[in-house]
Amino acid sequence: MSRFTKASVLSAALLLAACNAPAPENSEIEVPTEEVSSSSSNVDHTADSITFTGKSNIVNHEGRFESFTVDFKRDAATPEDLTKASLVVTIAMDSVKSDPGVEDHMKREDFFNVAQFPQATFTTTSIVAAPAAGEYVLNGDITLKGVTKQVSIPAIIDGTTLMASYDLPRRDFGVGNDSYGDKLLEEIVPVEIRLILE
Q1: How far apart are CA 182 and CA 22, in angstroms?
Q2: ∠ CA 100-101-106, rounded to 5°
Q3: Which of 70, 122, 120 shows the shortest CA–CA distance to 111?
Q4: What is the three-class DSSP state of 97?
Q5: Which among 31, 36, 49, 119 counts the fewest CB atoms within 10 Å?
Q6: d(CA 179, CA 165)
Q7: Which stretches within the chain are classed as H helix?
Q8: What is the pTM of this model?
Q9: In which element (H, E) is residue 104 found?
Q10: Cβ count within 10 A of residue 175
Q11: What are the tens digits of pLDDT across the range 65-109?
Q12: How far apart are the C-alpha atoms of 56 and 183, rounded to whole Å?
């Protein structure tokens, strides 16, 4: 966006003098300057987090995604009615962070296959209010590793903070290698989500 700032009389005089024109007395000149914004939103997303726990009968591995976008749109006429809102979360899968050695393995073909599927998304099809105040059900589609599944995720929305937990059935999305023998991975991967909404 552009805005106009007022230059001082001295600045105006110097500018006009450089052009060999007389400087006006007691006047001001509006000079356009550029205001650069790094985001279209003023929402601070530094408190956002998407974390998970990969479990096996040998050891558990904590993980998180460091890069994702949150696109939350409220209904213009009734912004307080969250059942009329929509939410899209897009995750950069190569931003996964975990234990050394495990992190790189998660990017390979048998896990997230980030080279072929660089993004995962969750898109709501509806947001339903639950009986308890502040509780909702997020109905929507998860697309992970090229597979899309319809899911319903319980969530708590407190002001502008959304908190949710989801048990990801990794085999449904082709995530994980089950040929490790005694190091068998658990089928369910608990995912914890905290998002700051607009």
Answers
A1: 88
A2: 110
A3: 120
A4: strand
A5: 36
A6: 28
A7: 9-18, 102-106
A8: 0.76
A9: helix 102-106
A10: 20
A11: 999 999 999 999 999 999 999 999 999 999 999 998 899 999 999
A12: 6
Q: Which two tokens stand for residue 70?
A: 């949150």
Tokens of 3: 């805005």
Alpha-carbon span 87 to 43, nearest angstrom: 15
Tokens matching residue 145: 């590793």
C-alpha distances (whole Å) from 41 to each of 2, 17, 45, 168, 186 are 16, 42, 10, 30, 39
Instruction: Please classify residue 60 by burial: count the beta carbons closer than 10 Å to its beta carbon, then call 0-12 exposed, 13-18 middle and 19+ buried.
Output: exposed
How far is Cα 106 from Cα 168, in angstroms, rounded to an integer? 15
Amino acid making up residue 6: K
DSSP H or E segment with residue 6: strand 2-7
Report helix, strand or coil for 164: strand
Tokens 């390979």 correspond to 108
pLDDT digit string, tens, across residues 24-70: 444 444 443 333 322 345 678 889 999 999 998 888 999 999 999 99
Query: 135: which 2 tokens?
Result: 């509780």
| 6's tokens | 């007022």
